[in-house]
Structure formats: structure tokens, C-alpha cells
Amino acid sequence: MQDRLDAYRRFLMLEPRGHADMYGAVLMPPATADGDVGVLFLHNEGYSTMCGHGIIALVTAGIEHGLFEVADPLAIRIDSPAGRITARVNYSAAGGVDSVSFVNVPSFVLDPRLTVRIGDRNVDCTIAYGGAFYAYVDAKLFDFELIPSEAADVIRTGQLIKEAVNRQCEIRHPEGDEALNFLYGTIFVREEEKCGHSRNACVFAQAELDRSPTGTGVSGRAAIHHARGDIGLGEEMVISSIIGSKFRVRCLENTTVGGIPAVIPEVTGSAWMTGEHRFLLDAHDPLGSGFLLR
Amino acid sequence: MLDKQQHFIAEYDWIRTSLMLEPRGHAMMSGGILYPSQRDDCDIGVLFIETTGCLPMCGHGIIGLVTIAVENGLVEPRVPGRLDLETPAGKVSVRYRGEGRKVSSVKLTNVASFLYSAGLQLDFPELGGPLTFDVAYGGNFYAIVEPQAHYGGLSEMTAADIVRLSRLLRERINETFTFSHPKDDRLSHMRHVMWTGKPVKPGSDGRNAVFYGDSAIDRSPCGTGTSSRMAQLAARGELAEGDSFVHESYIGSRFRGVVEATTQVGDFPAIVPSIEGWARVYGHNVITVDPDDDPFWKGFIVT
What we know:
The complex is a heterodimer. In chain A, strand 11 and strand 12 (208-209) form a beta hairpin. By secondary structure, chain A is of the alpha+beta class. Chain A has an eight-stranded mixed β-barrel. Chain A folds into two domains: 6-99, Diaminopimelate Epimerase, Chain A, domain 1 (Roll), CATH 3.10.310.10; 107-269, Diaminopimelate Epimerase, Chain A, domain 1, CATH 3.10.310.10. Chain A is built from four helices and 16 strands. The longest helix of chain A has 18 residues, at 151-168. The two termini of chain A are 24 Å apart. Chain A has helices at residues 6-13, 52-64, 151-168, 215-227; strands at residues 23-28, 37-43, 47-48, 76-80, 83-91, 97-103, 107-118, 121-129, 133-138, 183-191, 198-204, 208-209, 237-240, 246-257, 260-269, 275-279. Chain B has helices at 2-20, 59-71, 159-176, 223-235, and strands at residues 30-35, 44-50, 53-55, 82-87, 90-99, 102-109, 113-124, 129-137, 141-145, 190-197, 206-212, 216-217, 244-248, 254-265, 268-277, 283-287. In chain B, a hairpin with a 4-residue loop joins strand 7 and strand 8 (129-137). The chains are: A alpha+beta, B alpha+beta. The A-B interface holds A 15-17, 19-22, 96, 148-149, 151-152, 209, 211, 242-245, 272-282, 284-288, 291, 293-294 and B 22-24, 26-28, 104, 158-160, 215, 217, 219, 250-253, 280-290, 293-297, 300-303.
């Protein structure tokens, strides 16, 4: 798709049909013999290998609208560029899709306490992996409530921390592909009284702010809290995004990654249909193939 | 239409928020809602909606909705090629060109536009020194910044620069100067900043980027902005009655403006500009809103 059909990504993700924060998925025939469906993930700059909120949305839409057949809705086998993802539909009493759970990759803490210099102050962060590496920072250090009106400040500060960590710390996945060896984003955390229940705001890629609580981000959180002894196996944490949407995450089992203790997290969230679109490209439209302002 | 606008906001604002805000829309989204007209001399009524509320009038909105309405048979014009719209700002008459149902361009005549003040100056250390600008009115007040010692032109500005610098400049201009519309004081706000530069395409006379709202850059060449720019150039003697001015947006789209007439607004010499542009239909969407199940059914915004 990248080589031959990238025009379709631009057509759908960029303006005027999409926008800078648009995200999409293309359903494909499965890549494996026992897979139910294959998926490619699209965004404004290109493709990503795995996306948690994308999985939740496409399983919801796929099941509610019969977009693909599944052998077992409690163990849907999705072939993503990152590999096999197993998802489960949690049905509502009325029989609709209430939420979707998926099992993520082994997640672990790389550095429990890294101090970086931001301007004239020291900032402590924790580096963890949940499909991508993130620096987790206490939002109270910057007096962030993690609400939408703080978006510009959150993005700017998140970018500064990410740059500082990338400068001061070697990010290396002990077993994974070299392409994983970089800090993808900064996640600000605001803890509430009940342990683990909190708000997250994730600044990732090129100054994007996640509207969801971030599937890979909450997986890293689960690894952190499990390592600290805050949560045991099967114990659930509820994590909110900057707009107040929620993911639940729990550790299914212990494992190791290159000798580092790790957990297998399961993430649960809900998606809702917002519309069905028939997009057109007018032969006389010079801007119709997509544009983006940066 | 102002009554309808008030009724819409009081009773049905969720329609606006669910369509304009995320996840269905985004920070730059704007829209139009068609109504039957209450006036005998108009074909159709229209409300303009965007992320923060309703607008009395929107040039590129008119171009878009006339194209959609005519191509899809949503309105039967009494006179082919001409449509009279009842907007909250009053009656707006447009001409459109095309073949059969296909609309190739839409032209609207704007309100009287005038240069309000020339050669205002402010210290602007962010660009390395003082900045000189004019202020003109074309439906909104615009601070117009042209290339000069500390501003090399639009080609040197990224979208992020435009947003960051315009916010600061607008704030400082409004702290230092006041602007008052000679006919109606309710119109006396300067909320738009226009940065000009050399056109990129052959056949264009100018290029611009307009900053408005909290963090928006107009994707179109801006109808009221182009009118203000033409009023500025006319006041300098660079445009006369009957002259055209092809204005390029930041993304390269173009409006063709014409000085249709000269007039007077209070003590200010003014022009009556027309703006012509095109729109294309890029989809038919069935939007669903589920207040029972979706906690975000009214939409949300992150800015």
C-alpha cells in the first residue's frame, strides 16, 4: 500500500476529508492461515504497525456491521504489521458490543527513575515499554490537571521531555527490532486517591496529543505498577484520557524480555460508530487528493 | 435568520457540536444549514456553524453550500445562474456558473470594504524589531502585514509560526490600538491577522494566510480578508473600479476578487468587492449520533 496506493491514505487522512489528528484502518484478508482479518493502520504522515484504540474501533465496527467473519468473537485473530493481535468482544446485555479487550505485547520497565534537565529544573521520569517506549512524568510537577484547555502547554512540555530523554538516555529493547529503539512519546500521569486510577495525557509522534488513554501507554503503566507491587496479576486499573474517555488494563501473566521482568497486559475500551461515509474525488478538484498544514 | 439562529442555538446546539467538533469534525471545521427562506426576495435561508458557535456570514461557506445545493437539487433557483440567500447578516446575492447541474464557480458581492488605518507600528521582538501594518475592513477588521525589514514574506512562515506570531501580534495590537466601524459599533473587533507574500502560481496577484479564532488558519484565500486587502490596495491607488485581484491562499487555492463599485462608509472611501471561487463535493456522509450509548455524542475539542 505504501508503495502503490499511498494516494488513498492521503485522500482519507488529510484535509479536506480528514485532519492533522485523523487515524484510520484498512481491513485486509488475513496474512495467516488461521487469521480472521488483516489490518493496516494509517495516519497523517504514514503507517503505524499497531494501534490499540484502532483495534478497539475496528473490532466494534467490524462486529456491529458484519465487515468481516470471525471464528470466535471471544478470540478474534487479527493480523497487524506488528504481528498477531488477539481481541475479545464483551457483549452488552442487549447483545451489542459493549467493549473490546485485546492482549498486548510483553511490557516492561526500562528505567524506573531517570532524571532529565528541562530548562533550569530536574524532572524525574520512568521509562517503560508497552509496544512503544514512553517517558512517564508526574503531571503535578507542571501543575497540569490534564484537561483539554491545557493541550498546547502539555504538547510543548511533552516534546521538551521527549527530546531531553532521547539526548540523555539510550533507549534499547533487549529483544526487539532496532526500529523500536527510540522514545515514542511522553505520558503525563495524574494519580487519583485510589491506586492506579488516574488520568493520562500522551504526546506522541510529531506533537500529536492522543484523545484516547493510549493502548500502548496504559500497557506501560501496568508494567510500572506491577513492578512497584501496586497491582497483582488480574487486578484492574482504570486510566482516563485528556477528554475523559477510559481504558481498563490488567496484567494477565508474568514473563521476561531479555532477562527483564515483564507482564502481558490486556487492554479494554469502548468505541462508538459516528457515521458512514461515501467519499468522492471530483476529477476537477486540484486539492481533492489531500493537503496538510504544518 | 437571526431569530432562527437564536432558536437553533437554544434548542439544537447539540447538532452543531456533534457535527463540528471531534470525533466527526475538527478544530477547523465549519458548516452550513439550509432553511426555507422567510423573505419573498430570497431563494433559501442559511445558518453558518463552526466549532465555537454560529457566524452571521461566511464567504467560503456560501461558495461551498451554493455548489452543493445546486448540484444536488436542494434548491430550485428562480433565475438560473443566480441565487438570493437569506443569511443572519442579511440578504446575499450570488451568481454561479456551470453546465447543467455542475457548478464550476460561485461569485458573491460582499459588504462595502475600506482601509481604516495605514502605517501603524509596533515593536515586535519575536521577528527582531518594529513591524508596520495597515488595518482594513471587509466584513471583519484585518491587520495586514506585508513584507518589510523584519518580515520577509509568507514563504518564510510555517503554519506553526503563523499561529504563534499572529496570536501575540493580535494581542499587542488590541492593547495598543482601537478600531471602530463608522456604521455599527458591534462590528468593531480586530480578530483577524493577514500575512501577505509573493504568489506561488502564475496568474495570481497576491498570496495570504489569515489567522483567526484561537488557533485557526484559513484554508481558503478568505472572502472578507480578500475584500479588506482589495480595499487597502484601492486606497493606495493600486486597484481601480473594474479591476480584478486574484488572491492565493496558504494552500494554493484562489479567489478572484473584482472592485465592482466605489462608495463611502462614514468618512472612509470604500469599495464594493465581489469574490468568486469554486468548491467541490467530496463526500456524502451519514452521520450517526447515539445519545443513549455514546458518552461523547455531543463531540469534544482539544485545543
